[in-house]
Structure of Taurine catabolism dioxygenase TauD/TfdA:
Amino acid sequence: MEIHSPSQGRIGAEISQLDLRAVTAQDATRIRQTIYEHKLVIFHGQSPSPEEYIAFARKIGRPQVYFQHNYHHPQHPELFVSSNVLEDGKKVGVAGTGRYWHTDYQFFQEPLPLVMVYPQVLPKAKRETYFIDMQRVYEAMPAELRAYVEGHRAIQEGKWRYKITPEDVDKALVDILAAVEKQVPAITHPAVIEHPLTGRKSLYLSSGFTTGIEGLTHEENRAAMAKLFAFIEQEAHVQTYSYQPGDILLWENRALLHKASDNPLGEPSKSYRIGIYDELPFYKS
Ligand code: 7UC
Ligand code: FE
């Protein structure tokens, strides 16, 4: 296995000369170290079956099962399916997931440390994932913004991103919202988190899931959120990855925000995600 590091200040190491079906425990350790250092690793020319893909994830850590079953692959619940492709005339997974800045499972007490994506069908026009390195964002923050987050906790809510399922037919929006709220109540995490291994700090906010800083009034939060997200999401902070067939991406969800591209022509698009718990807490407490 060969590791090609990114240039200074960039994320994403490319790993070549490795078949993901034949990864040893030693390889897995090096892959994890590379993720902690470069936040994103890219494998090219891979074609594992779903079983082999899950087996690889198990070498990296503990695959997660997503909390909503409508996202699951029918045979493999560990696979979170983002797809608009009918299979045997049936809908599988959910289309158009994650097209907003976020970090996976931020609205849970135990967010996902690592995330892996394996596209199955790539639209011709574009299939991209955009990333923002929140360790760099934290380091570059002006004092005015730092004051909002340093020593504060942020409120995380998943309910606004809930996607209507076939089971919701005939239900009132208020009742759907109440049920979702019960399943994923608002929680808080530190607005700045410290990496459990490297100790590097990162800003832990996303416009997708973060609805405020604890202790601020509604008006104060509106102003704070607008300023923080304008700073975070500026063009200079965004790194784009365009998928080629055979690519598999694996990244550290502690340090990166991500967002999926849109699909302007509505072309067939399908990918398998696996969320992975490593052996470390999500952040130092
Ligand atoms: O459909 C989606 O955009 C999925 C989102 C609500 N959750 C992804 C996650 O793991 O946090
Ligand atoms: Fe995501």
